[in-house]
Amino acid sequence: MSDLDLLTQSLARNVKRWRTERGFTLDTLAARAGVSRGMLIQIEQARTNPSLGTVVKIGDALGVSITTLLDYEQGPRVRVVPADQAVRLWHTDAGSYNRLLAGAEAPGPLEMWEWRLMPGEGSPSDPHPGGTVELVHVTAGELTLTVDGVDYRVPEGASASFEANAPHAYANTGKTPMEMIMAVSVPPVR
Predict the structure, then answer these.
(1) Is 109 or 136 the better-scoring residue by pLDDT?
(2) By the 8 A CB rule, do 111 and 187 touch?
(3) Which range has the worst mean pLDDT, 11-20, 53-62, 79-88, 97-106?
(4) pLDDT bracket for residue 148 (50, 70, 90)
(5) In whole angstroms, what is the distance from residue 105 CA to residue 62 CA?
(6) How many alpha carbons lie under 13 Å from residue 65 in its C-beta half-sphere?
(7) Are 30 and 36 in contact (CB under 8 A)?
(8) pTM across the whole model
(9) Residues 6 or more apart from 121 whose CB is under 8 A from it?
(10) How far is Cα 55 from Cα 70, in angstroms, rounded to an integer?
(11) Which of 12, 28, 50, 141 would be 178's cystine partner, CB 3.0–4.6 Å?
(12) In DSSP terms, which residues pair with 138 in a beta bridge?
């Protein structure tokens, strides 16, 4: 399959996913995006390669980025953000600053949790409803994050985001306590 075919398939899957998640009909999205219903049908059936301008309009109407619409990763997506790749958005001469640690597009309620796991301990989690996203930021120790059977090491100062509709678990396989901040975004009930 060519890169263009992958992008066409990804765009089809992602437009339909986000349209459904937002509760939009084809007519609603067409009106919001300023594109024809027929064009949306062709896009969702992977029968056309729309212009970049059309993709931007659809992304804006859905409230998601172009990157999200063209993302061809399948299955549970996990992105570990190393500490040195956190984005500092502003700072002052006095030493104040903020850093974007990890982000994900989420349409519903958002919870923030503080966790501490002692060495050798862990906590499994059943899959959450489709569309649920979790963000974690490790403030001490190292987290072993397991998503759909795959282990990811998230060291102190690093962050990760993942789609939580697969089995997942948090563990401390190190020798010191692990502490993290976790945010959970669950899609709204429709």
Answers:
(1) 136
(2) no
(3) 97-106
(4) very high
(5) 11
(6) 7
(7) yes
(8) 0.56
(9) 171, 172
(10) 9
(11) 141
(12) 180
Kindly state the tokens that stand for 159. Answer: 């962050």
Query: In this structure, are residues 159 and 99 in contact, taking their beta carbons and an 8 Å threshold?
Result: no
CB distance 103 to 161 below 8 Å? yes
Non-local CB neighbours of 151 within 8 Å, separated by 6+ positions: 144, 145
Residue 6 host element (H or E):
helix 3-22
CB 146, CB 126: distance < 8 Å: no
Number of residues written out for the chain: 190
Q: How many helices (H) and strands (E) does the chain have?
A: 5, 11
Buried (b) or exposed (e) across 99-129, using 16+ Cβ within 10 A? Answer: eebbeeebbeeeeeeebebeeeeeeeeeebe
